[in-house]
Design a protein that fits this description.
Layout lengths: L1 H17 L19 H8 L5 H8 L3 H14 L4 H13 L3 H13 L4 H17 L3 H14 L4 H10 L25
Helix pairs in contact: 1-9, 3-4, 4-5, 5-6, 5-7, 6-7, 7-8, 7-9, 8-9
């Protein structure tokens, strides 16, 4: 089992190292943001209040979809799926901070387990695009917690694990042989 896990990690690293990013803000190894959950889209499409926002999102009219979903959240502030889809539409428009805020709202509204996994994927992608790899890593791990078979989150967790801006600096060693600062006695 351990060999299989290591082989998967090596493969994930090889895949992420080969794929170039098309823009400066797109996380390395991901050309496109995560896609919206089909379950959430189906449930939102079944609600008359959010059906137009879902239809606009599916037609790749993300600006209009985000406006429609913002209006929906004013009417139904407890609709975590609408907040999630709003975050996804912001991701598609490269508005990463707005996407992060929409995902935070969706998490605060108490989503079901499956949607929480997708929300954490989106939030991790947002953080990674904003070059905050520690927060991205944290949310990729949370997505893995909600769905262990989520390959998108597993690859993201591997990709962001050791990406720090600077390695930690070692502490200076204490001098030996010099005068002691402790009083004798």
């Amino acid at each position: 089992m351990k060999k299989l896990h290591l082989a998967f990690l090596a493969g994930a690293l090889a895949v992420s190292a080969c794929a170039p990013a098309h823009t400066l803000n797109v996380p390395q190894g991901h050309d496109v943001p995560p896609s919206a959950s089909k379950t959430s889209l189906d449930r939102l499409a079944g609600q008359p209040e959010t059906a137009s926002g879902v239809r606009l999102y599916q037609q790749a009219r993300y600006r209009q979809a985000s406006l429609e979903l913002e209006r929906e959240l004013e009417v139904q502030p407890a609709n975590y799926r609408a907040a999630y889809l709003l975050g996804m539409s912001y991701l598609q428009r490269n508005r990463y901070e707005d996407a992060r805020d929409a995902f935070r709202l969706a998490l605060e509204l108490g989503p079901d387990r499956k949607t929480a996994c997708h929300i954490h994927n989106g939030m991790a992608y947002s953080y990674e695009a904003m070059r905050q790899s520690k927060m991205a890593h944290y949310h990729y791990h949370l997505a893995c917690h909600f769905n262990r078979a989520n390959g998108y989150a597993q690859q993201g967790a591997v990709r962001t694990e050791y990406r720090d801006d600077a390695p930690p600096k070692p502490r200076p060693l204490a001098r030996s042989g010099g005068p002691s600062k402790r009083p004798n006695g």
